[in-house]
Amino acid sequence: MTNVVKRFPGVVALGGVDLDVQPGEVHCLLGQNGAGKSTLIKVLAGVHEPNEGTIEWAGEPVTLHHPQAAMDLGVATMYQELDLVEGLSVAENIFLGHEPTRFGFSQRTAARREAAALLARLGHPEISPSVEVGTLSAASCQIVSMARALSRDAQLIVMDEPSAVLDAGEVKQLFRVIAEVTGQGVAVVYISHRLEEIREIGDRVTVLKDGKTVATGLDAKTTPTQELIRLMTGRSIEYVFPPKPEVVVDAEPVLRVEGLARAGEFASVTFDVRPGEVVGLAGLVGSGRSEVVETIFGARKATSGTVSVGGKAVRGGSVAAAVAAGIGLCPEERKSQALVLGASLASNITLATLPRFSHGGLLDGSAEVEAAEELLESLDVRPRGVHRESRTLSGGNQQKVVLARWLLRGCKVLLLDEPTRGVDVGARSEIYALIRRLTDEGVAVVVVSSEIPEVLGLSNRVLVLADRTVRHEGPADELDEHAVLDIILKGDAA
């Protein structure tokens, strides 16, 4: 791809991008949210046609007018926002558009058999080819998406944040499959914000900034991390966590969770969080972490146990009661669970505080916009525009909008489930600083993250969950990644 330019009304998404990928290599594509990575891979996948520039495949110029043209060449794309069809089975999704046929008739048995073989190759034989995709977890859906990419005779597989919803064991399995396909001469374009993954799996690196290539062909193993960060952000950022908040040990807890349980999802969970304290929940995907915070927030109804804020019990199974008590949640799936994608940034930010802007049953739109603009400015949400639809923002900026909602609400307890998933290194540092700002104001914070270093780096105390049970609780400073994994693996074995 040479000097690729893509314009949308009022926006230059790509202002001149160069990318060359060699057979059998893992070429890593880095850049902040909004740098143009997603637009670039959509050009490569035939979703968008470039306004300028050239694309060559095996030395010959090509024009990709539509996605089928890219697939016919041998390009398979795994998008960050999975495009699976919920009403269809796993096998039907894997072979969608290229179903096994004989004499013009679909061969469903053959499709299920081949799907099972692909899932076993990915290390997940437990996923049934016959089950409906809509019933699967986010991690299982990612595995199905990988199987779909492998089901085609692909010569180039584009993976956009493939590890975002995978646990450590699943990431290792993913890397094993990548090594297998690249060993057969297939090229992989790998997009991730986790720089440690780039080191482990990558061969060469291309860095985008503001829709342009600022560096290409860098050695993934030897290029210093600070140099990659400088190229992505245009400045040096210390990729470290802010100092942990000082917590008054004998202070009355803001949040108290006692004997909370949901049958089949997690057993009795008890902990409290004091003013300005961060408590982390660590564990593998499926350990019950997300279910715990969603139950505290009232999105799920507990089988037993209680939640109280400031000493007052919160009615279970009611999001409205939780919000009224001062609890806010930034959920794991921000697009489907937190944002109204077709609504403006102002509407999304004020969603939990509408009574503040209502007078006599009428919404004061100017006051709403003014409050939203102030928060968007302070959180440096880009691109600017309070009336912009939230779907047009990158993942990191969407996360800031969700956080802005609870800043405006002034909540006492903030539950953060995967707060930096799909977020670039610059925005990640800003989110860490924002969490510290909230704790300085006395907010009690609970953090769930698949990244154990993130849980340990942000938290004062950590609960480790395994097999849907709390296996350990203690100060974060007394643990390291290996100790947490040891607790998790022993718990799962039990």
Strand and helix layout:
Elements: E1 2-8, E2 11-17, E3 26-30, H1 37-44, E4 52-57, E5 60-62, H2 67-73, E6 75-78, H3 90-94, E7 101-102, E8 105-106, H4 108-121, H5 138-151, E9 156-160, H6 168-183, E10 187-191, H7 195-201, E11 204-209, E12 212-219, H8 225-233, E13 255-262, E14 266-273, E15 278-282, H9 289-296, E16 304-309, E17 312-313, H10 319-325, E18 327-330, H11 334-337, H12 345-349, E19 358-359, E20 362-363, H13 365-378, H14 395-409, E21 413-417, H15 425-440, E22 444-448, H16 452-458, E23 461-466, E24 469-475, H17 481-493
Parallel strand pairs: 3-10, 3-11, 6-9, 9-10, 15-22, 15-23, 18-21, 21-22
Antiparallel strand pairs: 1-2, 1-4, 4-5, 7-8, 11-12, 13-14, 13-16, 16-17, 19-20, 23-24
Helix pairs in contact: 4-5, 13-14, 14-15
The major pleated sheet works out as: 6 strands, mixed
Proportion of residues in β-strands: 15-25%
| Average of the residue pLDDT scores | 89
Give the tally of β-strands: 24
Task: Give the name of the CATH superfamily of the largest domain.
Answer: P-loop containing nucleotide triphosphate hydrolases
As for the number of domains, it is 2
Q: Flag low-confidence runs.
A: none
Rg estimate, integer Å: 23 Å
Strand order of the largest sheet: 6-9-10-3-11-12
Second rung of CATH, namely the architecture of the largest domain = 3-Layer(aba) Sandwich
Q: Which CATH class of the largest domain?
A: Alpha Beta
Number of helices: 17
Straight-line N-to-C gap? 52 Å
What is the global morphology?
Answer: globular
* Class by alpha and beta content: alpha/beta
CATH topology of the largest domain: Rossmann fold
What helical percentage do the residues reach? 25-40%
